[in-house]
Amino acid sequence: MLPRLVVLSGAGISAESGIPTFRDFNGLWNNYRIEDVASPEGWRKNPQLVLDFYNMRRKDAQKAQPNRAHYVLAELQEDFDVTVVTQNVDDLHERAGSKNVIHLHGSLFKMRSSKDESLVFDIKEDIKLGDKCPLGSQLRPHIVWFGEAVPLIETAAEIVASADAFIVVGTSLQVYPAAGLIEETRDAIPKFVVDTKIPYISPRLGFNALEGKASEGMERVKDELRRIFAKQ
């Protein structure tokens, strides 16, 4: 049985593909207030603005291409049972070939009923005002907004707790509950964090830090993981 590798990815892994992160100087939020486009209150106040925002983001994601970091994670499936737990709402992991991806914060390529969140549908084109689900309610982006519960967090925590190796790549670890997943890792397993700016992680968790671009850092992690597990 292949060793279990779990990866927590964030906006930084997609930044090299041209998808802006939220917190960079030229980040996504510079032109928008979070409350206006990423909250239930913003949706109730101005659903057209919210739909326009995510329709634009969907188009941007469709134009983007996976980068080397995404492909490295897919390649690691040759040697590991890989689960990617991502905070990203793009589909670059899947397009690079990763087969087991959990989208904690939803997906740009799904929409759901605003009345029943279990009614989820695939979407490639724009969501428009007046687009209704079978229940008659307006369809909204299948995105976990600020102030909403993260339905898959318990599933993700169980998967992280079972990992034989763990990677954090491209996330500031500032958004909870996703950031708290690092606390679920077992002791004495290989753990790596890759980012252009390494976030604070308690030394007791035993992470190896590789500062730099996700594509470069993931190449190094891939080699190190293969070296470690070749000895076992």
Can you describe what's shown?
- The structure is a single chain.
- The chain is an alpha/beta fold and about 230 residues long.
- The protein folds into two domains: about 140 residues, 3-Layer(aba) Sandwich (Rossmann fold); about 80 residues, 2-Layer Sandwich (SIR2/SIRT2 'Small Domain').
- The protein has eight helices and nine strands.
- A six-stranded parallel beta sheet has the order 3-2-1-7-8-9, sandwiched between helices. Strands 5-4-6 form a three-stranded antiparallel beta sheet.
- The two termini are about 15 Å apart.
- About 40% of the residues are buried.
- The mean pLDDT is about 95.
Task: Examine the coordinates and then state which fold CATH places here, giving the name of the CATH topology of the largest domain.
Answer: Rossmann fold
Biggest sheet layout: 6 strands, parallel
Distance between the termini: 13 Å
Question: Strands of the largest sheet, in order across it?
Answer: 3-2-1-7-8-9
Structural class: alpha/beta
Beta-strand portion reads: 15-25%
CATH architecture of the largest domain: 3-Layer(aba) Sandwich
Question: What coarse outline follows from CA principal-axis ratios?
Answer: elongated
Structural domain tally: 2
Helix content: 25-40%
**Secondary-structure element series:** EHHHHHEHEEEEHEEEH
Number of DSSP-assigned strands: 9
CATH C-level class of the largest domain is Alpha Beta
Number of helices: 8
Radius of gyration: 18 Å
